[in-house]
Write a structure and sequence with these properties.
Rossmann fold, binds 5-O-phosphono-beta-D-ribofuranosylamine, alpha/beta
């Protein structure tokens, strides 16, 4: 039976779309049982509805505190039988109640190479800092923001004169590849977590590493 996942989103939902597309292409063996949005204007809702996926709009503004809001989400998620909670641009901090309810079963994608540039402006902060490589991280969620054990990362090079928008677009392209891939690894029981160390069965090192090369940007000249 396909793993039942829920996607929680607050905005555009391009990651949700990549997950929907991976299911449609038959490369991700999961059922998106529910999409929850905390904003009624989230485009993610339209994407889900177009794909025939059940949605719930749960507005955080209608609850007296974070615990009450999370309790409402927990109820819907349990009702729908969701086994994995996928955060995809969900802009609310989750309470310990939520995280303990789904312990080890919540994943998130962050647009930076964690543990650098945590928080809501990962890409802009990295560009402002002057790093040469940006990227994205898929990680398990624990009670500290952007802190959980890392499952996968992609490195995205960019030039100093490129705008945040250009870098963001490039990072998103990689998000849309690694997030569905990680979900498929989880769906097929291949991800094992041991404290901060996460291993995925039957995947070797990336080719670039096994060939003795490292991804460096800008490219090094001969002799260096
Ligand atoms: C992505 O950059 C993701 O890394 C971050 O929020 C953004 C969501 O984008 N957590 P989208 O709504 O999936 O297009």
């Amino acid at each position: 039976m396909a793993l039942k996942i829920a996607v929680l989103a607050s905005g555009s939902g391009s990651n949700l779309q990549s997950i929907i597309d991976a299911v449609t292409r038959g490369v991700l063996h999961a059922e998106i049982a529910l999409v929850i949005c905390n904003r009624s204007d989230a485009f993610a809702l339209e994407r889900a509805q177009k794909a025939g996926i059940p949605t719930a709009t749960i507005l955080h503004t209608e609850y007296k505190d974070r615990e009450a809001f999370d309790a409402a989400m927990i109820e819907q998620l349990q009702c729908a039988g969701c086994e994995l909670i996928v955060l995809a641009g969900f802009m609310r901090l989750l309470t310990p109640l939520f995280i303990q309810t789904f312990a080890g079963k919540i994943v998130n994608i962050h647009p930076a190479l964690l543990p650098s540039f945590k928080g809501t402006h990962g890409i802009a902060d990295a560009v402002e800092y002057g790093v040469k490589l940006a990227g994205c991280t898929v990680h398990f969620v624990d009670e500290i923001m952007d802190n959980g054990a890392i499952i996968a990362q992609a490195v995205v090079p960019f030039a100093p004169n490129e705008s945040v928008d250009v870098v963001q677009k490039r990072v998103l392209e990689f998000e849309h590849r690694i997030y569905p891939q990680v979900l498929q690894w989880i769906a097929t029981g291949r991800v094992q977590q041991n404290g901060r160390k996460v291993s995925v069965q039957d995947t070797g090192l990336p080719k670039a590493l096994t060939n003795g090369h490292f991804l460096v940007s800008p490219q090094l000249e001969d002799g260096f």
